[in-house]
Amino acid sequence: MNKKGILIFFLCLTAFFPSCARKKEREEKVATVNGAPILLRDFQREVFLASRRDPDLKTTHGALKELLQTDINRKLMIQEAVRMGLSEDEHFAETIKKFWEQTLIRELINAKTREWSDRLFVTDDEVKKHYKRMGYKVTVRTAAAENEKEAQEFKERMKKGEKVEGEKVLGPLLVEGIPLGSPLYNAFYLSIGYAGVAKGKDGYMIFLVVKKDSIQLPPLKDVYGRIKEALLEHKKERALMMWLDAVKGSAHVEIDHNLLKSIANE
Q1: For the chain, how big is the Rg over CA atoms in Å?
Q2: Angle of CA points 35, 39, 41, to nearest 5°
Q3: Domain 136-216 maps to which CATH number in 3.30.1300, 3.40.1710, 3.10.50, 1.10.3470?
């Protein structure tokens, strides 16, 4: 729903509830269920969300009455659950805790995304380069090394066709499944036989492009919007991970590795 539609929608609600515009009536009750109120402002929020789910929703008296009945049914079920003592159950408390934590994390992510919105964008050039990467599926050999010297040694051996310790073969890979910050993201641009080394948080990654196959793609204009949206989501995820790494850097975290090993039966 666009801004104009939202404005019209709230004007309709204001007409239906003429007193909702006055500050003193923010706590006005649209209904009570066994003495428990359903506040007007809460009900308006429910109607707004319902209109987001169904853009064709008409705010008629009948439609609003049906939505209100849903709230009343929910209130009745909650009251019955409390009467039965279910709200004091340990499982219920743990479920509420997890829901609260998940909601809080989601709100944090939304807040950080809004904070980054002025610097997170996708250029036309980025879309075109990603589209070019989409035109291939690649197979790579990868390995991990603890230091740069070992990484360079592994790289040269892999280029000669030798196998190295812990080597894996990945693919065929599609670029849509590769994070923007991954060294493998550039593999779709590289030629067969190219070997590279990338430094990560836990050591070094070595990769060798062993196979590239072309993929028939629809015209760029047909997928431009989808690519742009996907790249923006990737950038949001990357920004969040970078921010979280910075938070970890200033946090004091202790891990009982012995206990962790005992749980894993190691």
Answers
A1: 28
A2: 180
A3: 3.10.50
Paired sense of beta strands 168-174 and 136-145, if any: antiparallel
Give percent of the chain above pLDDT 70. Answer: 90
Q: What percent of the chain has pLDDT over 90?
A: 32
User: 173: which residues sit within 8 A by CB, 6+ positions away?
Assistant: 137, 138, 139, 140, 184, 187
CA–centroid distance for 174 within its chain: 20
Tokens of 15: 């007409």
Alpha carbon dihedral 67, 69, 71, 72, in 10-degree steps, equals 170
Host H or E run for residue 97? helix 90-116
**Strand pairing category for 29-33 and 36-39:** antiparallel
SS3 sequence, 101-152?
A: HHHHHHHHHHHHHHHHCCCCCCCHHHHHHHHHHHCEEEEEEEEEECCHHHHH
DSSP 257: H
